[in-house]
Amino acid sequence: MIAELHNKIANGEVKIAALVGEYVARARADTRNIFREVYSDRDIAAQVAVAEAMLAEGKSTALTGIPVAIKDNILFAGHVAGASSKMLEHYTASYDSTAVAQLRAAGAVIIGRTNMDEFAMGSSTENSAYGVTKNPLDEMRVPGGSSGGSAAAVAAHLAVVSLGSDTGGSIRQPAAFCGLVGLLPTYGTVSRHGLIAMASSLDVIGPFTRTVEDAELLYNTIAVQDSFDSTSVARKKEKSILKKKIAVPKGLFDDGADKEVKQKFDTVCGKLLEKGFVIEEIDLSHFVDALAVYYILQPAEVSSNLARLDGVRYGDRMSDKSVLDMYKETRGQLFGKEVRRRILLGTYVLSHGYYDAYYNKAVALRSLIRAELEKAFETYDAIITPTTPTPAFRIGEKAHDPVSMYLSDLYTVPANIAQMPALSVPSGKTTEGLPLGVQFIGPQHGEGTLFVLGKMVEQFPL
User: Fold this and answer.
1) CA–CA dist 1, 212 (Å, integer)
2) Do strands 422-429 and 181-184 pair parallel, antiparallel, or not at all (unpaired)?
3) 204-209/161-166 β-pairing
4) What's the pTM value of the predicted model, to 2 decimals?
5) Cβ of 432: how many Cβ atoms within 10 Å?
6) Rounded CA gap, 34 and 81, in Å?
7) Is 115 within 8 Å of 151 (Cβ atoms)?
8) Measured between alpha carbons, how far is residue 2 from residues 159, 161, 176, 202, 458 in Å?
9) Spacing of C-alpha 379 from chain mean position
10) How far is C-alpha 171 from the chain's CA centre?
């Protein structure tokens, strides 16, 4: 889609101002709570002028003039970045995140920031302090989370592509729920500089697109080594020869999955077999442990990262009566229920007497999960799973059952724990017309292989 628009812009068939104006008008008219903010006409006009100058000077890129949306936790200088929380409702970014800087250097036009689960904690966007985003494909259902707004913006044709962040599936799960392509890059290949942190060893910025080709283009734009991020790594050139072998974890459906999810998954595997791939079940004994590890490590890092939001250093302040009252009222009133739940859980697993019993064991198990996957990739190109156990669920259906909500990340979490890339691509629809996704997990720096596999699945009649 980007290539087609680029060609039309380059040959004068489409004017950048008109293209951007069309998307902005739709975004402003939308009533599904997808955007937290569509930027001002003045701001967008300034970006359009830069894009038009690049085109006139022969310096345009494939992204020049392309309307892009960003998640509300990605910093854009001079604009509010609130993480969909009352705590940061008035926080204005003083600098560009590296990902945004790369988009701007390419001439992309950032039209607004999208709704999300507060501080990226959730799988449905129902935890936003500003209300749930409706899935454009069925407005009674959630778009997924935590990057639900970014997924919905692309699915509803309010942006050509968008950026989200993925800590345990927060790009891939909403991509599956909204019928899109979603990429979790290798940890460190996309800088976290300018991303409001939830869990620093898990967070990764990545794209939502309609095609794998567009995901590859966007990834190649934002994936740069960055001196501002101590965890940033240089991309490594991977081997281009496929082994044509794909692994399926044994017991993949033991914890339950929707019948149609399994049917579509089996259909994709069957089509890959027809293409000459070998698909084998393998024993990944620790694969299913990843979710438990995630819900120890992630809250622990949340507890640490959000400690700075106390009414003194960062965030709004609710009381000046005393220091204790300020802490209690600021954090008690400005953090939502899910955020407080995870802070409490994280503080508990880090506390004296429980650190060794929980946190250290989770760290050790994380190493085993990574080693197990690395061993598998000595033989196989990728591991294939459904992206989610179910299609998009109804708004409110799981709101009072946190454990059921957490199970939405059952298949996506292992890649984050192992800091490996994963790609979700559409795998057809249910009989009700709800989109489903299939996920490929690859070795570190194995994005190229994932793109090859994803493009292949795009061509399957599903």
Assistant:
1) 10
2) antiparallel
3) antiparallel
4) 0.96
5) 10
6) 15
7) no
8) 11, 9, 20, 29, 16
9) 28
10) 2
Token pair for 21: 């104006």
pLDDT tens, per residue, the chain with 462 residues: 899 999 999 999 999 999 999 999 999 999 999 999 999 999 999 999 999 999 999 999 999 999 999 999 999 999 999 999 999 999 999 999 999 999 999 999 999 999 999 999 999 999 999 999 999 999 999 999 999 999 999 999 999 999 999 999 999 999 999 999 999 999 999 999 999 999 999 999 999 999 999 999 999 999 999 999 999 999 988 766 789 999 999 999 987 889 999 999 999 999 999 999 999 999 999 998 999 999 999 999 999 999 999 888 888 888 778 888 888 888 999 999 999 999 999 999 999 889 999 999 999 999 999 999 999 999 999 999 999 999 999 999 998 888 888 888 999 999 999 999 999 999 999 999 999 999 999 999 999 999 999 999 999 998
Q: How far apart are CA 84 and CA 148, in angstroms?
A: 12
Instruction: Tell me if 450 sits within 8 A of 422, measured CB to CB.
Output: yes
Q: Is 146 a catalytic residue?
A: yes
Task: Catalytic residue, from 123, 146, 150, 303: name it.
Answer: 146
- In whole angstroms, what is the distance from residue 61 CA to residue 205 CA? 21
With left for phi above 0 and alpha for psi between -120 and 50, is residue 419 left, alpha or beta? left
The one catalytic residue among 170, 191, 303, 408: 170
- Active site annotation includes 303: no
Compute the distance between CA of residue 84 and CA of residue 133 in angstroms, rounded to an integer. Answer: 12
Q: Dig out the tokens for 94 from the structure.
A: 């003083």
Picking from 236, 226, 219, the residue whose alpha carbon sits closest to that of residue 192 is: 226
Q: Which domains does the chain have, with CATH numbers?
A: 1-462 (3.90.1300.10)
Residue keyed to tokens 């299939």: 438
* Residue 201 known to be catalytic: no
CA–CA dist 402, 282 (Å, integer)? 31
List of residues 6+ apart from 245 with CB closer than 8 A: 277, 278, 279, 280, 379, 380, 381
Q: State the catalytic residue, choosing from 71, 134, 264, 398.
A: 71
Secondary structure percentages of the chain, helix, strand, coil, to 5: 40, 15, 45
